[in-house]
Amino acid sequence: MSQQPPVRSTGSPPPRPDASMSLLNNVIDHALDDGYAEATARRAAEGGGLPRSLRAKLGVAAGLLLAAAVVTVGAAEARVSAPVVAKERQDLIDRIETETSAADGLERDIERIRAEVGERQRQALQEHGGDQAELVALLSGATPVHGPGVKLVVDDAKDTDTGGDGPRESSGFSDTGRVRDRDMQRVVNGLWESGAEAVAINGQRLTSLSAIRAAGDAILVDNKPLVPPYTVLAIGNGQKLSTAFQDSADGQYLHALVENFGIRSSVSAEGDVRLPAAPSLTVRTAEPRGVGATPSGRATADTGKGTS
């Protein structure tokens, strides 16, 4: 039995390999939207998008002229106002300098008058202080003094970040290697207790009314800031005063600060120590001659300074 040859199909041609990418082909073939293409063609037919009428051209020219005029006027105003602004600025600088100079002059006048008042108060204390005028003047800091004594230097530690418990134990008090007002209070009180007759810190004479306080990290003596190192000079029997202070409780306190916190300290006996007078005396009461006079016929004055 003969076999018939296979019959070949004569249907549709095979599909294209990229038939599955019909959407991508459509995007490629029609990259420009039909609406944009139509608008571009219409603009090209009308003359390239430029205004065709004379009115439109005049409008564009007027707009350009107006913009140029605004820029020109602004530049001219800035050029005209620049010297005026510079002059006002210079006038303000001159005024500030003048007022600053005036304030400096007033401060100098205040210091001069304060010094004159202090000198007259000291003279009055010496003249009307009675038989013990010199002793009262010494204890109140009314006069400069010199004589044997000790020199005590206290300075911050090189590393001020040290912390921990120590002799400064108190709530809210920072135990660091920085000298505090409380430290200087104890040092000065220890010198007084050890027999010092007069004390000064960094040239600032202390009296019974002097206050050692702190403002931030700065130490104030009678509201005047001091900077480290703190040099404490005390009048007294040099070697005896030095030994008595180092053996006292306050001297041991200073030694503990040196050992525990690295605060630097040195003490030495001096043959001649010079201390200035206190900046000013505060006269609280005064009586003229003949009214409430003392048996010697001299007026009395209360300077507010103690004798110890």
Overall radius of gyration? 47 Å
Instruction: Give the class from helix and strand content and strand pairing.
Output: alpha+beta
The spatial strand order of the largest sheet comes to 3-2-7-1-8
Order of helices and strands: HHHHEHEEEEEEHHEEE
Low-confidence stretches: 161-166, 169-173, 291-308
Give the integer mean of the pLDDT values.
Answer: 75
Binned strand content = 15-25%
Give me the number of helical elements.
7
Q: Determine the N-to-C terminus distance.
A: 151 Å
> Tally of extended strands?
10
Bin the helical content.
Answer: 40-55%
Q: What is the 3D shape?
A: elongated
The main pleated sheet reads as:
5 strands, antiparallel
Characterise this structure.
The structure is a single chain. The protein is an alpha+beta fold and 308 residues long. The chain is 45% helix and 16% strand. The protein contains seven helices and ten strands. It has helices spanning 22-29, 34-45, 54-128, 133-140, 181-193, 238-247, 249-261, and strands spanning 145-155, 198-201, 204-205, 212-215, 218-221, 224-226, 230-235, 264-275, 285-286, 301-302. The strands form three sheets. It has a five-stranded antiparallel sheet. Strands 4-5-6 form a three-stranded antiparallel sheet, with helices on one face. A hairpin with a 2-residue loop joins strand 5 (218-221) and strand 6 (224-226). Helix 3 (54-128) packs antiparallel against helix 4 and helix 5 runs antiparallel to helix 7. The longest helix has 75 residues, at 54-128. Residues 161-166, 169-173 and 291-308 have low confidence and may be disordered.
